[in-house]
Amino acid sequence: MRTSWQIQQSVIFALFIRELRTRFGRYKGGMVWLLVEPIAHIAVLSLIRGYVRDGSLFGIDYPVFIATGVIPFLLFKNITLRVMDGVDANRGLFSFKQIKPIDTFLTRALLDTLISIAVFVIVLAGMYWVGFDVPFRDPLPVMAMYALLIFMGLGLGMVFCVVTHYMPESRTMIRLGMMPLYLLSGIILPVANLPQWMLPYLMWNPLLHAIEFLRSAFFVQYNVVAGTSPLFVLMSTLVILAFGYVWYWNRRLELLAR
Description:
Blueprint lengths: L3 H22 L3 H24 L3 E2 L2 E2 H23 L1 H4 L11 H30 L8 H28 L3 H14 L15 H4 L3 H13 L11 H28 L1
Helix pairs in contact: 1-5, 2-3, 2-5, 3-5, 3-6, 3-9, 5-6, 6-9, 6-10, 9-10
């Protein structure tokens, strides 16, 4: 007899292999797109920055500055949206009593985490190879903020999974809402360079705090804006994750009833 934990491990492993085959088995270009998407963001923003002014920022190579914001944000976005679609994408599997929606959520979050880490390493290594200055001053805050972004995306994805079950039309609005969130999370410019009147409103965004601390862990000369708090990121993540899980648990039978 196997324990429930051993059964869940086997289920997640099987779902992980299935997700890999589904995502990359049919379209070989899917692996290329993993690198194309962040590189496209970095290239376009760097070209715009170079056209407007020089390509450095406080002595930081601008492409490296963008990479340390874009790739973590894409991790958060991809986990959120894939967890949101986790039930509908795997609905046929729930006839097996061992498979629960939470298993699909965890599997998708795990796969996107591994992909994001690999992309981060490849992109930064490529930048170092072509001659950019790629410091890595303090790895612990990077790992901590990465972990918080993963759990924040998981929690928000569960919230959106329930929301889209009752309001399917909201799926498009949620996807479109990622663009303003991208612009308001300090990806393109340092938060210290933004107008002061905006900061009291922007500081309610936990993603902005996470990106700021990620960059401070890379660059010695990067000044974190006053009021940035890793505790705020932690508490926001715990609240979102707890709310998402409790709401999913209370509605799990309805999610499977469609």
